[in-house]
Amino acid sequence: MLEHLPLFFIIAGLIAYAVLAGADFGAGIWILFSKRDDKDLRDHARHSMGPVWEANHVWLIFIVVVSWTAYPRALSSVMSTLAVPFALALIGIVLRGTAYALRAQAQDGELALKIERVFGLSSVLTPFALGTAVGGIASGHVPVGNAAGNLLTSWANPTGLVIGVLSVATSWYLASVYLTADAQRTGPPALVHAFRVRALAAGVGAGVLALVGLVVVHADAHRLWHGLTHGGGIAALVVSGLAGAATLTLVVARRYEFARAASALAVAAVVVGWAVAQRPYLLPGLTVGQAAAAHETLVALLVAVVVGAVVLVPSLGFLFTLTLRGRFDHHNPLLESTVTPVQESPNSSVRIAAAAAALLVGAGCTVLLNSWGLALGVVLLIAFILLGFGPLARPPENTH
Amino acid sequence: MQALSLTVHLPLICFGIAFPSLVLFAEWRYLRTGDEVYRTLAQRWSKVMLTLFAVGVVTGTILSFEFGILWPNFVGTFGSVFGLGFALEGFSFFVEAIFIAIYVYGWDRLKPRAHLLAGVPVVIAGITGSTFVIAVNAWMNHPRGFRMSHGKAIDVHPWTALFGNSFLWQELVHMYLAAYIVVGFLVAGWYAICFLRGRFGRYERAAFAIALAVAALVSPVEVVVGDWAARVVAVNQPVKLAAMEGLLHTTKGAPEHLLGFYEDGRVKYGIAIPHMLSLLADHSWNGEIKGLDTVPANDRPPVNVERFSFQTMVGIGTLFALLAVGYIFVRLRLRRLPRSRWFYRAVVLTGPLALVAAVAGWITTEVGRQPWVVYDVMRTSQAVTGAKGIPIGYGTLVLVYLALAAAVAWVLRRLALIPLPESVSEVANA
pLDDT tens digits for A191-212? Predict the structure, then answer.
């Protein structure tokens, strides 16, 4: 049981990454395919991901570090064989992050449009590359060992490519639904309408592509097909299909917040379906149990994840509450000029003397003593910095 | 390749560790005094902070993938021992990303006190995040908490390996303070440029004073902490120390050589200070210092690279400490900022120099560990990937980083060019 727990974390991370960061990628795709004069649409897509895209992106790092702690052999095989798609994804991530930072500082105009094109292209490249990597793993093209698989055909095969395309399509579809919901909160009705139409189109498109994907998997990856069409696999696919249909219905009915949840469920079910279909193997011939790290490590990881979750869940909740309630949308003039100044005492000679003493004693202890004396010395040195900072950081008036 | 990525990531780490506390200090000053200058400062700095964090997220992602792509055997064999550190770092990164967003997007949208509090987790996550990563490096230098059996790590105790490690504390304190020096001098350097260009109002003065206060207070402390670090290395990695000093034979009362280079088993053209090395590393006049010849020739690191980077770091650090003491003296005795243009020119130089010193410091600890990736356990050549086409990847990465650097420079320049709000610039010119 213990050796399976990290896998649940990884799957949870994958779902979070797919439904959160996926939507951010999708927003970038809309920016790429928008008409030149659709500036409102682009700005809306860009602004809605502003506060959350970095946090969403960190899920990817979470997945990688949990994998290499819990299943080091599997991860090292995956990474070395699939170096090419991961490198492509990295290039996409770099371009995306940079373009986003650049766009915030660029004035509207030709340059801004160019930056947005780069942003959009990298938003296609990244999910595509990551999708092909997933396809490579799912179709059993990644053997166990240091770069043991083929550097190209391990991912550039029918299943890999179709899952790459499907990743882009689901991102696109998620973004359309989310952006419609966000537009209802902040944007003018025309914007809501624009994204509503796009959400319906992207939903149908993603659904059709998913069916095409199944046909390809049937022809190309028998094990995966077998897993997906039996037991839990087929259940997950049915859930996904129903959730997809529900999303379309809800968008038609203009219930966008429910549509947001349904669209996320549709994507999450696919991730779960993949995991169920592959059970019990991570890679061909390597079961979860065989790949798992030592017992102590798994316990430590479990503790880390639980403690981390205690901090993380409320924090994430806080961020998304602020975002979804629109607290970041508008400037609140009531909050200004609520500051009451405090009179400060200008005399800081006592602090300076204390700081000097801390420096001398601290340096003495650190250089001459060991263990606890040394620790005390370091603490004193840090105290010197803190004590000295107040007086020194205040600029003297009238220098000139 | 990983070295390149680390070098690029390093300044961003420094800003991740040290900059949030400066921003928060500025905002705290605003809340205490109601002085608009500090509010403007905190707001403008927080934008810089967000930009650098965004780039840091990107370069950090590259690094975490590179571990797997480039060093599959290292991760495959020891992932279960050190991976925990990165998992914890992942959480810190998460918290940092969340609250940095709340902080930067929350200006004027949250109550002032709540806004200030939203910045606190950013500072804490910066500390914990770097602690976890440095714990991994400390473990690579001083591996504990597992046994090797037939090429596999067994009997693994990850908590002991990472945090019960005597190597961690000096490395952590040393790096943490280094981050403050780098950020302090780089930021102060920018405002020193403003001074040299004749734009040095209240706003610039406030910014300059905060940044330089950090650097000036931390620099002398860093020298003392560096002595501690050197002693820990002397005990645990005698070969590294011998390489840092170019000492071939085990010697009692060993001399210290400044400058020069190592050839045929001794330092040439260096200035020798008798007994100094024993005094520094062992705190005794005739203390025995182990030489390079305690291990076979193919277990020794490249001596000249090691010596050169170590001396660069120590040299720059010492200059900083002197500059810092001078500055503190002027501030306290004369109660003013220095007026000499030479002082400001020096401060402009300190920023890049601080980066050089930090990189040199990492080279010292990483090259000094060679040929091992995990000290005395796994050789670097055993850890590396079997995949081909690494040069192509390397070339691409260089291009990507150059583009990234250009983009960052452009954004920071744009941010700096945004004019100060009227209320502040009036005060500033008064």
Answer: 888 888 888 888 888 889 888 8
Contact B126, B14 (CB under 8 A): no
Contact between B243 and B368 under an 8 Å Cβ cutoff? The reply is: yes
Q: Are A168 and A34 in contact (CB under 8 A)?
A: no
A371's torsion region: left (phi>0), alpha (psi -120 to 50) or beta? Answer: left
Say how far apart CA A119 and CA B47 lie, in whole Å. 20
A330 touches B: beta carbon within 8 Å: yes
Q: What is the pTM of this model?
A: 0.79
* Residue B430 confidence (pLDDT): 39
User: What residues does each domain of chain B span?
Assistant: 217-387
Chain B CA closest to residue A356 = B217
Measure the CA–CA gap between A364 and A380, rounded to whole angstroms: 10
Backbone phi, psi, residue A282, to 5°: -85, -50
Number of residues that this document lists for chain A: 400
Length of chain B: 430
Query: Which residues, other chains included, contact A122 with Cβ-Cβ below 8 Å and sequence gap of 6+?
Result: A28, A91, A92, A93, A94, A95, A96, A99
* Helices vs. strands in chain B: H and E counts, helices first: 14, 10
Asked if A103 and A115 count as a contact pair (C-beta separation under 8 A), the reply is yes
Question: Looking up tokens 């943490």, which residue turns up?
Answer: B176
> Looking at the complex, does the CB of residue A79 fall below 8 Å from at least one CB of chain B?
yes
- Residue ranges of the alpha helices (H) in B142-246? 158-163, 166-196, 202-236, 238-245
Alpha-carbon distances of A79 from A155, A379, B213, rounded to whole Å: 12, 42, 45
- Residue ranges with strand state E in B246-382: 251-252, 256-258, 261-263, 266-268, 271-273, 288-289, 372-374, 378-379
The answer to whether the CB of A69 falls within 8 A of the CB of B84 is yes
CB atoms < 10 A from the CB of B217, how many?
Answer: 28
Cα–Cα dist A116/B297, whole Å: 55
At residue A108, the 3 state secondary structure works out as coil
CA distance A225 to A18: 21
pLDDT tens digits, residue range A171-196?
A: 988 888 888 888 887 777 888 888 88
Residues 99..158 of B with a Cβ closer than 8 Å to A: which? 99-102, 105-106, 108-112, 121, 153-158
Dist. CA B14–CA B226, nearest whole Å: 18
Domain coordinates in residue numbering, chain A: 2-324, 349-393
Q: Which of A68, A106, A331 sits opposite B75 (nearest CB)?
A: A68
A155 touches B at CB < 8 Å: no
Top pLDDT among B56 and A176 is at A176
CA B333 distance to own-chain centroid: 32
Handedness of CA A315, A316, A317, A320 (dihedral sign): positive
Written as one letter, the residue type at A112 is A
When CB atoms are compared, the residue of B73, B98, B335 closest to A316 is B98
Residue found by looking up tokens 């025995």 in the block: B288
- The two structure tokens encoding residue B202: 């209240």
d(C-alpha A390, C-alpha A249), whole Å:
61
Interface test with B, best of A10, A76, A107, A342 (most B CBs within 10 A): A76
Buried b (16+ CB within 10 A) or exposed e, A58-94: bbbbbbbbbbbbbbbbbbbbbbbbbbbbbbbbbbbbb
Confidence band (pLDDT; 50, 70, 90) for B429? very low
Buried b (16+ CB within 10 A) or exposed e, A310-325: ebbeebbeebeebbee
Residue with tokens 């991961």: A86
